[in-house]
Write a structure and sequence with these properties.
This protein is α/β, with parallel strands linked by helices. The chain folds into 2 domains: 50 residues; 301 residues, Alpha-Beta Barrel (TIM Barrel). The strands form 6 sheets. Strands 5, 6, 7, 8, 9, 11, 13 and 16 form an 8-stranded parallel β-sheet that branches. A hairpin with a 4-residue loop joins strand 17 and strand 18. The relative contact order is 0.16.
Amino acid sequence: MPANIHFNFYTYGFKFVFLGLILIFILGFTILNCNTDYSLKKIGLAFSKTHHHNNNNNLNIINKDKASASSHKATNTKGTDIKNRVNVPATYNGKIVILTFGDTTKSQIITAKPILDQYGFKASFFITCSFPDDSSKSSGQSNNINANNNELPRMSWDDILALQQDGQDIESKGMTHRDLNQLAPKDLEFEIGGSKQCLENHDINPNIFAAVHGDAWNNPTVINMISKYYGFADNGFADLFFLHCDGYATHKQADCRTYDDSGTLTYANRYSIREDSHNAWDQNYLHNDPIIFQKFIGQVNSQTAYNNKKGFVDAIPIVAYHSIDDSKGSSSTDVTLFASEMKYLHDNGFKVIPMSDLSYDGSTNYMYIKTS
């Protein structure tokens, strides 16, 4: 073959191969960027535009700086991937804590709120409606060194409304602070329904009820009355609260239905949101603050291993306080200890949310965190 013919053959052959590669690249790029899902499973690849982009209507995505969750539309989820719709990615490494305050004590606005404000934290304050009306206790003039919170000064309605105006969560803890298990139906209606009306009369719209002593979670009569007026209840104790109600070792459940298929009241549901009592630590460790502080650290971090194992946020610690003062009472937490605990949460990247940020998805029977 002549030299010039040999040269032209290889030259043009190279050009054809090069042009072919360009056409293949353009075709592949077009497929990846069109709006239709294309499956290339035959060659071991699957490209889907819905896999490349987070759909804010369908996914919870929470990190250390921002918390967001789906609106959980009440649609039929049969045949859909519910886990992908309601759970956060396995790479999530954030930590969430809920803080609650009970018994309407004056120290909550005088002492606790300035510390919360220092870090921008919002908590849930459960108000017993008859307490602010006691002017002698609301005035702050009574002796603050008492073991019983029933003798501590209470917040006034102006105090409570100031908390609400500042973005704190105001919820109900009954009318007169009585044990719900001991009440006749008429009195039960008064405590639960009456307290909602009482708060509404002060321009507060509660959706969570806290049961006194947290001991009404297994009482269907009480649960039915609470559900008549409220969407949730702070009711019961546990180290961790689970959004899917599936993390309690001795009470296995698949979801948060209030009653199971047999009509039996479940252990974990939206009317038995379980918290951990800080005052139990205060009493058990005799106000030994260094020991209690380490207990607190262990408690708020206990969610991490569980959530990492599951691959999404399910476990959340809820820490319950009453009075923040140095009285060493049975329902008090020392001021310096409380300040140290809030600083720890802030410095270690915890997201503190009020209980009112919880919502319920009737299609999955799971709780979730509302979009912030």
